[in-house]
Design brief:
Radius of gyration: 18 Å
Order of helices and strands: HEHEHEHEHHEEHEHEEEEE
CATH class: Alpha Beta
CATH architecture: 4-Layer Sandwich
Strand content: 15-25%
């Protein structure tokens, strides 16, 4: 993405942003480089339907984020939502109403290649049945410009498991890959044990990481923890995205998991723009709350 587009994005958001650059596929084959760079935008934890002091502007936050992305001169190749599209509710009718309204708001995105994934707020109470009615499969793969994307479901099981069936599906998919293929894994919960007593883990995530370890070029993007976080399991990098609704406290920084106090001046909400090529550039794209 052009640097002037990055600056324009941050100017549109109204606050300063943070840029990170690191090697994503350092051992990628020359044929992968020939495919050309591209970029996508990651939304996470939009929690449509949330109401509370943590975000008094919750009803408008998603629409503001859509406007922010639509304002980019160099539009992303695609957009992915890594879970918790809606805020949980015990009422099946209200759950579907929230999903319907969420879908209506994001339909205004200029980019029409939009990929969805469930979070536990969307899927854990009914094993993803309502989610599938509106957004389709809970797990899937797709390919884009020489990169293989794998979307995993670690939320529809209330016990936060991928499960034997999905792990077998993942293993079968990986058997079709070469050892140096470029692979991006998309998931909601972290696959590693970040803070298990805060539900920041996947019960059998270690089995998925074990399946991915033989591949030299793997990166994982996830949500759930409502903050930016970076972690390595061997050579596999895991990058958490900010929430679009409210930030949560850093892992272990306080006795219980809870939202950070509301502060409209803080750039603690946003989306992530990811440029994929020989290197990856992350730009955290803030969204103002006032």
């Amino acid at each position: 993405m052009l640097q002037r587009d990055r600056r324009a994005f941050l100017k549109l958001a109204g606050v300063a942003g943070v840029t990170f650059t690191a090697g994503l596929f350092p051992r990628g084959p020359a044929s992968a480089q020939a495919a050309g760079d591209f970029h996508f935008v990651q939304f996470s934890d939009t929690h449509w339907g949330f109401k509370g002091a943590a975000n008094p502007d919750a009803e408008n936050t998603l629409a503001k984020a859509v406007a922010t992305v639509n304002g980019l001169a160099n539009q992303p190749d695609f957009i992915v939502f890594t879970g918790d599209l809606t805020h949980t509710t015990d009422d099946p009718k209200e759950r579907r109403a929230r999903m319907q309204r969420f879908r209506e708001i994001v339909s205004a995105l200029r980019v029409k290649d939009v990929r969805f994934m469930p979070g536990e707020h969307d899927a854990s109470l009914d094993k993803g049945e309502a989610y599938k009615e509106f957004f389709g499969a809970l797990n899937y793969t797709f390919d884009h410009k020489g990169v293989h994307f794998i979307a995993l479901d670690n939320v529809s099981d209330p016990a936060a498991r991928l499960g034997d069936e999905q792990l077998a599906w993942l293993a079968a998919d990986l058997r079709q890959r070469q050892a140096d293929d470029r692979i991006v894994v998309l998931t909601h919960r972290p696959l590693f044990d970040l803070k298990p007593d805060w539900d920041w883990t996947t019960a059998d995530g270690a089995r998925a990481i074990e399946l991915l370890m033989p591949f030299s070029n793997v990166v994982v993007f996830y949500g759930h923890i409502h903050q930016e976080h970076h972690h390595m399991t061997g050579h596999i990098a895991h990058h958490a995205a900010k929430s679009l609704i409210f930030p949560l406290a850093a892992p272990g920084s306080q006795p219980k998991r809870a939202p950070k106090p509301y502060d409209p001046a803080q750039a603690d909400l946003g989306t992530r723009d990811v440029t994929v090529g020989k290197k990856v550039s992350f730009v955290e794209l803030p969204v103002t709350r006032s």
